[in-house]
Amino acid sequence: MESKNIILLDIDYITHEEKAVIRLFGKIKEENGKTGEKKIIALDETFEPYIYLITNNIEKCKEDLEKLTPMPEKVEKVRKKRFQIEGEFLKVTFKHPQDVPKLREIIKDLESVDDIREHDIPFYRRYLIDNDIFPMSEIKLSGELINSFPTIKSKDSDLEIIKLEKPPETVDSEFPSLRILSFDLEVRNPDGMPNSKNDEIIMIGISSNFGIEKVISTKGKDLEFVETVSSEKDMIKRFANIVKSNNIDIIVGYNSDNFDFPYLKDRAGIYDIKLDFGMDGSDLKFLRRGYTNAASFKGLIHVDLYLVMRRYISLDRYTLERVYFELFGEEKIEVAGDRIYQFWDNGGEELTNLFKYSLDDVVSTLKIAEETLPLSLELTRIVGQPLFDLTRMATGQQAEWYLVRKAYEYNELVPNKPTGGEFSSRKSESAVGGYVKEPEKGLHDNLVQFDFRSLYPSIIISKNVSPDVLLKSHLGEEYNIANYLNKEDINENDFNISPEYNNKFAKNPVGFIPSVIGNVISERLKIKKQMKESNDETERRILKVQQDALKRLANTMYGIYGFSRFRWYSMECAESITAWGRDYIKETMKKAEEYGFKAIYADTDGFYAKYDHSDK
């Protein structure tokens, strides 16, 4: 049996001989922490999809399930927690992930079934969660090296295929050093918006963190950084060759999901050129992510930085020029989009400027990637979902998938996503926000700032704000809080009661989400302490990224109770958090006045006050 330690880059599943096969894409890790030349695709044929059933008659439900076509592979009783209350449920295992959507509504309609759970967790994500492995981390593979596999078309001599004999194991590892390449297209567009049927690509800019920095074009022979080819067809083939021959881990673009890759695919199709950059030899595919299609290669991670930046910083607009200036305080070269074809046609100095603009685009994109990707990579290692997916998730989705993973650790059943009707109903609800006091006009001196550290996460933890400890018939049945608390009698001292709404949250046991947030904050404080104690600049930089990722995760969680698509949605929780927040800030402003501090402006988790010591 062979054993290999790799950096896990990507994951998917395919169907082979009517069986779902998990594929893990990775690179051998070298001693210097970099990904090596050797690529690996690991195959696991042993993992099977499953769902949980909440049933009113376990034995009758088993009989009902035996009548289904296709019949489940296995039905077993398991003990799980549902909102912290332990009980017996049925775990139903299927032969293939596609059996789940085929049968879930049929199963849900059975008289013996009250509800189904965890039917909407994608198969490859389920594999990551159940096996406790994390993309962008080191894992140990054990199995048999094989020469080929039907779904792997790559002829790369540096590719190994291993058939796993047992699940992968996580290995403690430092942050991997990855090979990144940025690219950008320039198109001759005389009629305005480029049309891929008619308008040719005139330049492909490339920049990397391993030494390549150039523009490929049919013009520009006299420029040192331009590689000149004879035709657009040769330009696309040359770009494809560079990508395939340089062992790239991540390819980045700016708005590349919506423009560069769709356009490149269309133009490559005209010349019958394959963009087969996938580690398995597969071509470019577009996968639905949210409301858009995302350009995907198996084992080569494509990151569209435009999507990342919309969640990384808050700006009035997100052009490459605007983002670059915000991050680095420098202007980048600009050419108006409607003048690109004129610069191309006119030649001379204008053409030279167009080439410089093309190179500057990819250099700037790479620089943005090197500045911002460490945070996304760290979140990938925390949330435990692939980087390709994570960079296309809203922050609330990232937090939710972190909670899904934690629910598995806590042996908790994961709530379902809302149905269409539930979603519509939730959309009509909204929680009142934080307290805001409009600033007093004028020029003020003797100002001090009062600021609550992590106000909302702290409220969630200290007040135990969580739907599983909320006094409510939240399980669709009479909820006996006294039994839940293991007490014969209960009184108001057993609860934290929110101002304004009087929502009651049991003080014990600790709620699921407060427990998770508490662990996140504790881990962040531990890392901050390590930062202070470290004298190693590289270690401090890595720790800074880790604590920033944990901070974002904790601060995201307070807001998603009121997010309509959130699995643990609770308007009572959302409104209670902000009510306590308003109460705290008002009380603090009132207390500050007793010491001569008059608040002149307040917003959510802090306020500015003017010190008036005339009467003190």
Strand order of the largest sheet: 14-13-12-11-15-18
For the largest beta-sheet, the strand count, sense and barrel status come to: 6 strands, mixed
What is the C-level CATH assignment of the largest domain? Answer: Alpha Beta
**How many E-type strands?**
24
Spatial shape: globular
The percentage helix is 25-40%
Contiguous uncertain segments of 5+ residues: 473-480
What name goes with the CATH superfamily of the largest domain? Ribonuclease H-like superfamily/Ribonuclease H
Tally the helices.
Answer: 17
* Through-space gap between termini: 80 Å
Strand content: 15-25%
Q: Average pLDDT, to the nearest integer?
A: 91
Computed structural class: alpha+beta
**What is the CATH T-level topology of the largest domain?**
Nucleotidyltransferase, domain 5
Count of spatially separate domains:
3
CA gyration radius, whole angstroms: 28 Å
- Under the CATH scheme, the architecture of the largest domain is 2-Layer Sandwich
Oligomer: single chain
What does this structure look like?
It catalyses: DNA(n) + a 2'-deoxyribonucleoside 5'-triphosphate = DNA(n+1) + diphosphate. It is a single chain. The protein has 616 residues and is an alpha+beta fold. It folds into three domains: 2-47 and 131-171, OB fold (Dihydrolipoamide Acetyltransferase, E2P) (Beta Barrel), CATH 2.40.50.730; 180-382, Nucleotidyltransferase, domain 5, CATH 3.30.420.10; 417-594, Palm domain of DNA polymerase. Helix content is 36%, strand content 25%. The strands form six sheets. The protein has a six-stranded mixed beta sheet, with helices on both faces. Strand 21 (495-497) and strand 22 (504-506) form a beta hairpin. Residues 473-480 have low confidence and may be disordered.
